[in-house]
Amino acid sequence: MKLPKALFLIPTAILFGATLDGWPYVYFQILRWATCICAVLYALRAAESNSKPTAYIFAAIALFFNPIIPFHMKRQAWQFADAAAGVFFLYHGITNIPPLKERC
C-alpha cells in the first residue's frame, strides 16, 4: 500500500497540539478520527512489509484512540498518551522517509 510520505504529520501535529490546554471538545473528536485512521493505515502498511512490532503498536494506537468505543481517562493521562503516540508517529515518519540523496 502506497501512502503519502507526509501523512504522519497530520496525527503528529494534532497529537502534540492536544497536549496544550484550551481546546474545544470537537478538537479531540477530530484527534480520535485522524489518529485512528492514520494508525490503521500505518498498521496495514507495516503488516504488509513484515514489520510485526510496528504493526502491533499502530494497531494498539488505533484501538486506544478509536472514536466508536472511546476510552475515558483524566486530562493528564490523555496528555501523556497524546505525547507518546505523537512521538511514535514522528519517529516512524522520520525513519521511513528516504534521505534526499535517495529521492533524486
Question: Would you kindly provide a written description of the structure presented here, covering whatever features stand out?
Answer:
With 104 residues, this protein is mainly α. The chain has one domain. Helix content is 69%, strand content 0%. The chain is built from five helices and no strands. It is globular, with a radius of gyration of 14 Å. It starts with 8 loop residues before the first helix and ends with a helix.
The number of helical elements comes to: 5
Report the uncertain regions.
none
Oligomer type: single chain
- Which class do the helix and strand fractions yield? mainly alpha
Largest sheet: none
Instruction: State mean pLDDT (0 to 100 scale).
Output: 86
In percent, how helical is the residue content?
55-70%
Shape descriptor reads: globular
Q: What is the total domain count?
A: 1
User: Could you state the order of secondary-structure elements as H and E?
Assistant: HHHHH
Percentage of β-strand residues? under 5%
Ends apart, CA distance between termini? 22 Å
Count of β-strands: 0
Give the C-alpha Rg.
14 Å
